[in-house]
Amino acid sequence: MKQFALLFLIATVFIGCSDRDDNLDGVNIRIKNESSVTFDTVQVGSEEMIHENIGPEEYSGYLEYETAYSYAYINITAGEENYVFQPIDFVGETPLENGFYTYGLSISEEGVVVLNFVVD
């Protein structure tokens, strides 16, 4: 009887567990600030998709996108400075599958935005 109860408990735990990306309807992207300055705003793609107040080595919350790629148009505001990462096009690129992703962003000494794409 004890073996049956233990087996039932184990089966219940495994059946009740799910991945956080099960049943997602979109692509969830967050920002990791890999620079030494605070990002006041980070626009990823459209003007409505704004991540705010991300300190050095901190993460933003996730925002949900209908369609996204491993890179995107990015506009970073840090104090009085503005930095832009501008892709030319997405021809031949495959859209990301529904799930969770991180754009690790830093700024080079020359003021160029460096994107480090990570699957979470």
UniProtKB/TrEMBL annotation:
Protein name in the entry: Lipoprotein
Organism: Arenibacter algicola
